[in-house]
Amino acid sequence: MNAAPETLGGVFDRLFTSLRQTRETLTPQLSLHEVGAVTNVSTGIAKVSGLPGVGFDELLEFPGGVSGIAFNLDEDETGVVLLGDYADLRAGDEVRRTGRVMDVAVGEGLLGRVIDPLGRPLDGLGAVATTARLPVERPAVPIMERSPVTVPLQTGLKVVDALIPIGRGQRELIVGDRQTGKTAIALDTILNQRGKDVLCVYCAIGQRASAVAKGIAVLREHGALEYTVVVVTEGNDPSGLAFIAPYAATSIAEHFMEQGRDVLIVYDDLTQHARAYRELSLLLRRPPGREAFPGDIFYIHSRLLERATHLCEERGGGSLTALPIIETEAQNISAYIPTNLISITDGQLYLSPSLFELGVLPAVDVGRSVSRVGGKAQRATYRAVAGDLKLAYAQFEELETFARFGARLDAATRQTIEHGRRIRACLKQAESTPVPVPAQIAVLLALTAGLFDAVALERMTEAQHAVQAAAASIPPEITVQFESDQKLRDEDREVIIGIAREAVKSFQPAENSKTLGKA
To answer: Among this protein's residues, is 14 annotated catalytic?
Structure first.
């Protein structure tokens, strides 16, 4: 027999009993929130009152999901750098403290992704699959926990690897005027890390969207995006995002470094970073200094680049190599920001507009470029092959300038100039075509042996490509030595020169080919 249906009064009695029990067992939890109010909103910044306990660099929350960083801690108000679309913020809006500093997502899930400095995806591939986070501002590794730079970072560019080598853990500045190929050098270096167990982080600061899209397309086309994280701020983004972008990118790179991995980070470029900081500082009424930059502009770049290092074995032995890019105006490397960064970094690659106009690409000015650390990390094979190359090239550049005055030159001087022209032709390289180590060694050995001296200048590119292709036939027992600290043996050197001689034979005049064959 079916039970009698429950009456409405019984339902209410049971409900009220349940509510009474819940009320009796509930212990209210009080949480303290410090809340302030917006007093003024300007371009990329806001002035806030009513947050007496706020700390420097603390993250604040504004209405509409906008975040900000406490930047100026004055007695009566707080200057905040805004990190989002602030068009709807008004005076009187509520501001809340978060009690934490700005952080960013880190981890393997970022590889192959394009994100902004807040970790939000920009590539339309959905949310970033990572849970770990690190503060964007972190102290640099203590000196006692660092190791010397001893392993080379191959860029795939002959002029860099042979004459201005870079080591893993080094900070090498790329400096030059606009449109001289600075970004191309950085992207070629990233492309060359394929298969070398080096992860890359490319940080585009205040760049045009079209330029960033072109760079990402190059990385994707050559399969480099799978081991690269791209952090992007565009020119129309708030200045606050441009300011924190390199710090966020460095925290992403440090996460991999602390796991014992080798990482390369590119800052493209720190000129935009400095301008964003100058804009924020002037809006926040900080006193301007030289070229209207505040006095602590040196500190914001030094604390950024000091995080690039080579960790000791006890810390995992990882490394972080930094390639900051800086733009000069009318080749003025003595301007405020370039001189700051030259003094912070471990050397610089200077790109010359005159070489660029002559079609000498990459337009690296060997005379003004220097690597203060990478020579220690350069392989013994490179040192033996390229040891006299820089001196010969410098002598050629001096003599070439002198010869333009129409002076009569003796035979030895003319030979030096002709040899120097072939060095320059061999150091030329097309964009996005990194050259592997064996091919570089073969070309450099052919240069030092004078095999290219009889080749016409207009055929140098073909002859050089022929030698690079022939380098694939170098025996494996010889190529193994290229990656070690052993010096190249004389018999191995002769084997490589013999391979190169066969490759260039068809590009030389008939009489020279016969002479070389007898030799």
So the answer is: no
